[in-house]
Amino acid sequence: MDNKSVISVLNDLIETSLDGEKGFQECAEDLKTPEYKSNLIRHAEECRQAAQELQQTVISLGGDPQRSPSVSGALHRGWIDFKSAISGKDDEAILNECERGEDVAISSYKDALAQELPSDVRSLVERQYQCVQRSHDQVKAMRDSARAY
C-alpha cells in the first residue's frame, strides 16, 4: 500500500475519532447521571487523543491530516438531539445513540485493519481499535444499567 492510500485510511479514522469526540461531548451534556457523564467525557478525551495521534502519523507520512468531523457525524448528532428532545433526554436513549455511534467507529477500524498497512501503522490502528471496542462495551453496559432503572 502506498503512502497516499495509507494517508487516506488514516484520515478516515481521524474523521471517525473527531466524530466520536464531538458526539461523546454532546451526549455527556445531556446525561443526568454524573457517572455516565464523566465516563463519556473521558471517552471524548480518548477520541481526541486518538485523532491527534493519527494526525501526527499522517504528517510523518507527508500528508495533510483531516482536521474536522464529518457531515454524517453532524447529522447523527442532530438525530441524537432530536431523539433526546422527544424522549425527554432520557439517559438510556442518549446512551443507545452513543452505542450506535461506537458501532460505526468499530466498523471504520475493522475496514482500516482489512487494508495492508505498514506494520507500525497497523500496530497503532490495532491499539486504537481495542480502545474503541472497550468504549463501545462500556457505553453498552451504561445503557443496560440505565435501562434497568
Q: Could you give the count of β-strands?
A: 0
**SSE pattern:** HHHHH
Give the oligomer, counting copies of the same chain as homo and different chains as hetero. single chain
What structural class do helix, strand and pairing data support? mainly alpha
Q: Indicate the overall shape.
A: elongated
Tell me the fraction of residues in β-strands, as a range.
under 5%
CATH level 3 topology? Ferritin
CATH homologous superfamily placement: Ferritin, core subunit, four-helix bundle
**N- to C-terminal separation?**
50 Å
Rounded radius of gyration (Å): 16 Å
CATH class: Mainly Alpha
Largest pleated sheet: none
Mean pLDDT: 89
| Structure annotation, total helices | 5
What low-confidence regions span 5 or more consecutive residues with pLDDT below 50?
none
Q: What is the CATH architecture descriptor?
A: Up-down Bundle
Domain DUF2383: 6-114
Pfam families: DUF2383
Describe this structure in words.
The chain has about 150 residues and is an all-alpha fold. The protein has one domain: Ferritin (Up-down Bundle), CATH 1.20.1260. Helices cover about 85% and strands about 0% of the residues. The chain is built from 5 helices and no strands. Helix 2 packs antiparallel against helix 5, helix 3 packs antiparallel against helix 4 and helix 4 runs antiparallel to helix 5. The chain is elongated. InterPro entries: CHP02284 (IPR011971), DUF2383 (IPR019052), Ferritin-like (IPR012347), Ferritin-like_SF (IPR009078), UCP029477 (IPR016920).
